[in-house]
Design a protein that fits this description.
α1 packs across α9, α4 crosses α9 and α5 packs parallel to α9. This protein has a single domain, classed as Glutathione S-transferase Yfyf (Class Pi), Chain A, domain 2 (Up-down Bundle), CATH 1.20.1050.130. By secondary structure, it is an alpha/beta fold. 54% of the residues lie in helices and 8% in strands. Strands 4-3-1-2-5 form a 5-stranded mixed sheet, with helices on one face. The protein contains 13 helices and 5 strands. β3 and β4 form a beta hairpin. Bound molecules: glutathione. The site of glutathione has 11 residues, from α1.
């Protein structure tokens, strides 16, 4: 990589794993460029592809190295830059963090797929129909989507409440790790969106407050704050576009070099 060349994070503010990577980079003061792929994800973007076989975001380009899958990106950055706080040196704590990051894909991630996505994507239903995304369209059209999604999140919240927080306010111990950042992006969005109330989960509620006190919380989540409650008033394309723009602008406000594609 040429001297001074920034690594590139391909993402969109609506993407939970992209937010996790961007927030970690902001917290650690990493110099990065953000290439916003929102429009391509909505099917109206140009031919730009991140170097990821799935074409998904987040994808990181660091010189000749492409890294995809959010936990792999976070661990790559933590190892490269010596983030010994977010990647604990203690073997037991590090193992708990790895356990969580594996658990994440099959459990916590269902919060987005089962509850958040069906309420966000109503804003561009026609586009999804045209692209043949029948599973997503069926989920957003279901009369039961709020209750069915909440049942999924309740199951996940119960598991995390009982199985993590061994000693301290954070998932793996007394300090936040990469696991907390990954998990927070799936669960916190549901509170701003009016889709789930974690107050019956004492540890998770305390954890949500502790995470919100970390640096750069507001810019990293400006998309969610502007999108607001999508349970009371269904999402619209105008509202979604405004939230996305606010999310990208928040990164620019933090000094990140932003490029928009599409
Ligand atoms: N397992 C992946 C999930 C990535 C993912 O689901 N990305 C979504 C956005 S949140 C995406 O790129 N969707 C567009 C597509 O699949 O074409 C990770 O942890 O990074």
């Amino acid at each position: 990589m040429a001297v001074g060349q920034r690594m590139i994070l391909w993402g969109t503010p609506a993407s939970q794993p992209s937010r996790a990577v961007a927030w970690a980079c902001l917290i650690k003061g990493l110099n990065f460029a953000y290439h916003d792929l929102t429009m391509r994800h909505l099917g109206v973007g140009g031919p730009v592809q991140p170097h990821n076989p799935s074409g998904q975001v987040p994808t990181l380009q660091d010189g000749d190295i492409s890294v995809f899958e959010m936990p792999a990106i976070l661990i790559y950055l933590a190892e490269k830059h010596g983030w010994s706080d977010l990647l604990p040196a203690d073997l037991a704590a590090r193992t708990r963090m790895h356990q969580y990051l594996h658990f994440h894909h099959n459990f916590t991630r269902r919060a987005t797929l089962g509850l958040m996505a069906p309420h966000v994507t109503v804003a561009f239903r026609d586009m999804l129909v045209a692209r043949g995304k029948s599973q997503l369209v069926a989920a957003m059209d279901s009369a039961d989507k709020l209750l069915a999604g909440q049942r999924i999140v309740l199951e996940v919240a119960d598991l995390i409440e009982a199985g993590w927080f061994p000693h301290g306010d954070f998932l793996c111990g007394a300090e936040p790790t990469l696991a907390d950042i990954a998990c927070y992006e799936e669960l916190s969005q549901l509170t701003w969106a009016g889709l789930f109330d974690f107050s019956a989960h004492a540890k998770l509620s305390r954890w949500l407050s502790a995470m919100a006190a970390l640096p750069f919380h507001e810019p990293a989540h400006r998309y969610n704050l502007i999108l607001g409650d999508i349970a009371a008033a269904p999402n619209t394309l105008t509202r979604f576009a405004a939230a996305l723009e606010a999310g990208v602008q928040a990164l620019a406000d933090c000094g990140v070099e932003v490029r928009r594609f599409g």
